[in-house]
Design goal:
- The chain is α+β, with helices and mostly antiparallel strands.
- It has one domain: Cytidine Deaminase, domain 2 (3-Layer(aba) Sandwich), CATH 3.40.140.10.
- 25% of the residues lie in helices and 22% in strands.
- It has 3 helices and 6 strands; from the N terminus they run βαββαβαββ.
- α2 packs parallel to α3.
- The longest helix is centred in the N-terminal third of the chain and has 14 residues.
- The two termini are 27 Å apart.
- The model has no long low-confidence stretch (mean pLDDT 98).
- The protein binds tetrahydrodeoxyuridine.
- The site of tetrahydrodeoxyuridine has 13 residues, from β2 and α2.
Length: 160
């Protein structure tokens, strides 16, 4: 028997003002698209902004449904759109922000497990890490240098 340990590390910015300028701009776009979320059930709005290597920014917000599981998270709305419209482009950076209509979200909100799995697919396909920045409505912003850092021991095509 043996034990292994897998480490993940994050950069923590105290607030958006500490972010590099291009990420501030990307996060601002995530905030704007977050306001357009369709979240009548959870009242929890999430916005995602992706910067591609062709210079385009692709945005997404969560889209809920009366049949709850039929809704989709902001991250997957954005990444599936990017994959559909710009299949040859790499995704370089992703900014995510979440805010509740009922209370102020100060904790950085990381992508859910299903979104991590979906983002992983593109990171593996493009063979380049995707930088992921995530925050709540205000407060700290976490940076993960890659999706793999958020999802060690991931399931991917090499197991098929
Ligand atoms: N949500 C996202 O958009 N992204 C996540 O990573 C976590 C959750 C959405 C789904 C649902 O519309 C609402 O937040 C509450 O779970």
């Amino acid at each position: 028997m043996k034990e292994i340990s897998i480490n993940s590390s994050f950069t923590i910015y105290e607030n958006t003002k500490e972010l590099p300028e291009d990420i501030q701009e990307l996060m601002n776009q995530a905030v704007e698209i977050r306001k357009k979320a369709y979240a009548p059930y959870s009242k929890f709005r999430v916005g995602a902004a992706l910067l591609l290597d062709n210079g385009k920014v692709v945005l997404g917000s969560n889209q809920e449904n009366a049949a709850y599981p039929s809704g989709l998270c902001a991250e997957r709305t954005a990444i599936f759109y990017a994959g559909s419209i710009y299949p040859e482009s790499k995704i370089l950076k992703m900014a995510i922000t979440a805010a509740s209509d009922t209370n102020q979200t100060q904790a950085p909100i990381p992508p859910c497990g299903s979104c991590r799995q979906s983002i992983a697919e593109y990171e593996i396909k493009q063979e380049t890490p995707i930088e992921i920045y995530f925050m709540g409505e205000i407060g700290e912003v976490y940076k993960s240098a890659s999706l793999k850092n958020l999802l060690p021991l991931m399931f991917d095509k090499k197991f098929l």
